[in-house]
Amino acid sequence: MLGIIGGSGLEQLEGLELQREHPMITPYGRLASPVQEGLWQGKKLFFLSRHNADHSLAPHLINYRANIWALKSLGVTEVVAVAAVGGITEINGPQVINVPDQIIDYTWGREHTFVEAGSEVQHISFCQPYNQALRVKLLAAAEKADQPVVDRGCYACTQGPRLETAAEITKLKRDGCDIVGMTGMPEAALAMEAGLDYACLALVVNWGAGVIENEIPLSEIYQNLGQGMVGVERVLGCL
User: What are the pLDDT digits (tens) for 172-187?
Assistant: First the structure.
């Protein structure tokens, strides 16, 4: 059963034939927005808007634990997380879609595990943070949709909601990162703790600070987001 987590630019799944909404209260708090259950392009799936339908929830305020718990409890087994990111390396320019295979967590203060005081400690292997079988499905869907994507990349997850400084982007590049976003963690780790197959479909909407000489205006970022999300939906439709 497929679950899609929509990020910036995909706060709603256009064309979803809504069958039911799930405004859940989880052991980790109330969902910011209901999980939508329905048919989309002939497939039954569950859709969750990470930032709310009106994009009112900042990355560091998202209740990632509640989101993952809710999808798991509804029977979701595979999660495709859509994210808008910045490009760091040359191949990852605006409107490029990347299916990353690694991630580095630069966030702080987020509830990052289901393991709490008094519960049994459970360690997970996080060597490969994204499920390879689901990554292969995404790549096959992209090929079927005739949508070019970049296979592999390291996602740097920063705290947000501010964008990074030029010096920070330089550091991320030295660390081996290819793209930078604000929502990849702890989402990926929580999904693995919950036993869900999880992969990311990342749309590059701007160059990271300092990568090019001139700073890209926000208007251009939003334009890239709108145009690039067409390709993201094309890939999702071929899953």
Answer: 999 999 999 999 999 9
Q: What is the count of structural domains for the chain?
A: 1
Instruction: Please give the backbone phi and psi of residue 23, each rounded to the nearest 5 degrees, phi first.
Output: -85, 85
pLDDT in tens, 129-172: 999 999 999 999 999 999 999 999 999 999 999 999 999 999 99
Q: Using one digit for the tens of pLDDT, what is the confidence trace for 2-36?
A: 999 998 989 889 899 999 999 999 999 999 899 99
| pLDDT tens figures, 47-78 | 999 988 888 899 999 999 999 999 999 999 99
**Domain around 40:** 2-237
What one-letter code names the amino acid at 38? G
CATH classification of the domain holding 131? 3.40.50.1580
